[in-house]
Design a protein that fits this description.
single chain, 10 helices, binds manganese (II) ion, binds L-Erythrulose
Amino acid sequence: MKKGLVISTSPTRFAAVSHDGDLAHAFRSAAAFGYDGVELAVRNPNSLDPAAIRQLAGEYKLAIPAIGTGQAFGEEGLNLTDPAKTVREAAIERLKAQTAFAAELNAAVIIGLIRGRGSDDPERDQAYLLENLAEVAGNAAVMDVKLLIEPINRYETRLVNTVADGMALIRQLNTNHVLLLLDTFHMNIEEPSICGSIVKALPLLGHVHFADSNRRFPGAGHIDFPAVAATLDAVGYQDYISMEMLPWPDAEQSAREAIQYLNQIFNYQLQGMQS
Ligand code: LER
Ligand code: MN
């Protein structure tokens, strides 16, 4: 598996990322700690220069596995299920811009809170979600960019809380350009068994976020990460696991603690397999 670190390209209210205002510094320290890639949380890609970001990534030999899009909801309220048509249309346009940006960086596009929080009319929400995601996914297929649907816990949204919800939605979309993103923080709240749900999700598994039960770095809470690592190894998952965690006690230390812990649990697996 490959190790990623989530960083924001601009200041944000979403707490589980690091942002120090200096993208070059964030790339430099991610590379120095031994990460293979950085996942970028982007509010509006039109204010960024993909060529400059590609150059930075090349300089530090970092991949950009995915682009997070939730800030368009968190900072601007754009979402795919809003009762107002103008808001839904603006969310679709933003996701199309994110898809074009992602295509330049060979990254996938995450569908998190940009789907909206859900209303008292779940049937209408589902209809909007399906219709608008189908449009965004059709555009992504043309650009050959993958979308990643992230199940998010019930305290943040009513739409797509569980792995089963995510799989049902993807099957309805009926495209091979949409996969699942599993985040251990949300899984710890919603899934009956984190490891059992990873196994169930396998046919559609495209990306993983790690944070512990308290959303701090893995190892700082009570999720059984050695068991999670063993499951990911057992199912043959070789793609990115991005650390999406509170910068606690600060961004540098959480990035360092996370990768040390990852190396420990995944090396432990390797040693376990060899002995
Ligand atoms: C984003 O990846 C995430 O995990 C959500 O909690 C955003 O609100
Ligand atoms: Mn996440």
